[in-house]
Amino acid sequence: MERAKRYTITLDDDPMMAPIIARTTGIPSLAYTSSEALLRRASSYEPIAVFIDVHLGLNDSGIDIIPHLREIWKYSAFIIITSDDNADIVGDALAAGANDFIRKPIQGPELVGRLQARLAEMNNLRYRDEVVIGDLVFFKNDGVVRVGEKTVYLPKLEAKLFTVLLENREMMVTKENLKRRLWGELNIAGNTLDKRISKLRGFLAELQASLRIEVDYGKGVCLKLDKHNTVKTAG
Amino acid sequence: MSQSKDYSQIIRVDEEIIAKLKELNEPDEEIPFFDGLIHLYCQEAPMALNKLDKAMNQQDPLAVVHFSHKLKGLSRNLGLRRMAEICATIEHGTETLNTIEQRDLFEASRVELDQVIVALSQYLKPEAA
Number of Cβ pairs closer than 8 Å across A and B? Predict the structure, then answer.
């Protein structure tokens, strides 16, 4: 089961990185400056993603810690941060198990795009058949959503929409990204997506699910946990 | 290598990066997020520069690479292109620069950092400047 509260971890001796990443993605990011300190506590965390600086300290390489963290966090997206222009470094990090990389200065849309793409991959690996978030179970193959005793059957596009929004929970997903994921193209009438969102909202309301869909017409769509309801999490 | 490079041709502050970072501000923040980043830079960059100075004095090339790289990264975060470029030259020149060239570059980075801190203060919210 995935914990309801999502967060990432940033391993970087640059104190600006964790706040920039958190603010850009909309997801809190725990900051660590040494790989040794993080490794000691790693088993108590379950981040959706880890951002790792290649050059940590004088004798501390971010690349070296990747295989150790991967053993503990099998389904987290590992994204390398670097201001190193050397292509070998990126190659080494990817070979060590990183999923992606991003260069400084961080470009917001690029960071979010890479993170969302990697989350989609890791979610496919982790949740072959069902996603469990608190008291909600989503059976991906059948489009069935269950909360307690209540069940709804999502039509195909609403199920796809729900999958994408769940993968990127708490993060803004642009309407362009949604159109591509649902229809494979952008040339879709403006209100077609809005209608699907509206329908999905209706299904979630029927279930009294602890989730709500927020639409920011300038930025995109975000699936959020409803803070007013408690959501059970398992240890 | 370094003596012929004219860093004055490189812009000091990339306004596009600044603008994008300012977009991360949220309304009603007592201290705007971007101001917080400036304060962090003004704290961290001088410390990194001091450590770079020490590394050069101790003729410790690994430490020179590390602290120049760190200063480069900090500067790139805020679009401080000229500062980042000077630091990159120091970082990549540990094997090719002689002591005098290295020291000249350090001096250039010190002067540039002073200028950068003044430039950054102009972006702060008026009460915080």
Answer: 57
Of A16, A58, A83, the CB nearest to B66: A58
Interface of A to B at Cβ within 8 Å reads: 13-17, 19-20, 23-24, 53, 55, 57-58, 83-85, 104-108
What pTM, to 2 d.p., does this model score? Answer: 0.84
Q: Which of A13, A17, A58 sits opposite B63 (nearest CB)?
A: A58
Q: Is residue A235 part of a domain?
A: no
DSSP one-letter string for B33-92? HHHHHHHHHHHHHHHHHHHHHHHHHTT-HHHHHHHHHHHHHHHHHTT-HHHHHHHHHHHH
Work out the pLDDT band at A212, boundaries 50, 70, 90. Answer: very high
Interatomic CA distance for residues B126 and B81, integer angstroms? 25
Interface predicted TM-score (ipTM) of this complex, two decimals: 0.91
Asked if B21's CB is within 8 angstroms of A20's CB, the reply is yes
Domain region containing A97:
8-125
* CATH number of the domain residue A204 falls in: 1.10.10.10
Do B69 and B33 form a contact (C-beta atoms < 8 A)?
A: no
